[in-house]
Amino acid sequence: MGGRLGTALGAEARPDAARTMPYQRIANDDRGTGGESSADFLGYFSIGLGLAEALAPKVMTRVIGVKEPDDTNIATMRAMGLREIGHGLAILSNQHPEKAVWSRVAGDMLDLALLGRTMANPENDRGRTTFAIANVLAVTALDVMTARQLSKQPRTATAARMEQGVVRTKRSITVRRPVEEVYAFWHDFENLPRFMRHLESVQVTGDGRSHWKALAPAGRTVEWDAETTDDVPNQCIAWRSLPGADVQNRGVVEFAPAPGGRGTEVRVTLEYDPPLGKLGSKVAMLFREEPGQQVQDDLRHFKQVMETGEIVLSDATKQRGPHPAQPDDKPVQL
Prior knowledge:
Layout lengths: L16 H14 L5 H20 L1 H7 L7 H22 L5 H23 L5 H26 L5 H7 L3 E9 L3 H9 L11 E8 L2 E7 L5 E12 L3 E6 L7 E9 L6 E9 L4 H10 L4 H18 L6 H4 L16
Antiparallel strand pairs: 1-7, 2-3, 3-4, 4-5, 5-6, 6-7
Helix pairs in contact: 2-3, 2-4, 2-6, 3-4, 4-5, 5-6
Family: Belongs to the ribosome association toxin RatA family.
Protein name: Coenzyme Q-binding protein COQ10 START domain-containing protein
InterPro entries: COQ10_START, ORF3, START-like_dom_sf
């Protein structure tokens, strides 16, 4: 082997910084730190544990090794439960809950101190207390790992908006149709209710503006006026809601040739400000009303409309849960 090893990493072989900066900006914009999912788990875990401690403090006090709980033990356990519930709500209410997770770490230290006092009392069940300490240490390790991962989040404009409660979702799909055809169909906003199940109507009002009416959780409807902020034929369409919208939102749909001549890659990025922030988004997710899920469902419907001319429905789409094998003839609400 001739030549010098490692030249691929040499300064002369690296791409020009000005050329790579746009791609780095895109990467930072999309970047997740890996702590978001575990933070959500910790949020739900905190609420579950807190409810157990607040509603059954005597039982939980015995679980950690106190054989004969007194009023002080019970009051302390109930207070710990309320603190856990507060941690959980704080984590689930913030898109980047770095500070809320670090506060859980501080709570873990307090729990360990209280368990240490329990261990020091010879009248308690030290075996149970030891087991409780081991569990708290395991959760503390997860808390610290999650908090450190969230701390690595790059300080971008997108991250700043998400810290203010704005929820961001990004989805993509490949459609086996030419870019020009896919763009043209989407460009006519009045086509959107054909595949977006939550949209009741879109009316183009002129001058790049349109009026939208959509279904919301609990049978409500929301409306807003939007304006097109960017429109590059066969490449992208961007929009944002105007002041006074029931739900503030903005987004962009991008079109690009799919690799291997497989049609068009459609990428949708959506930002919205839910009424209850991230917590409202999590509650909506339980009923499949969270916009990230809606966007993915809508893209699948869009693909079907573009490729087959209609939305293909399965038996499971018509009837949820156990049902007769023969589907009925009732119309389907998308």
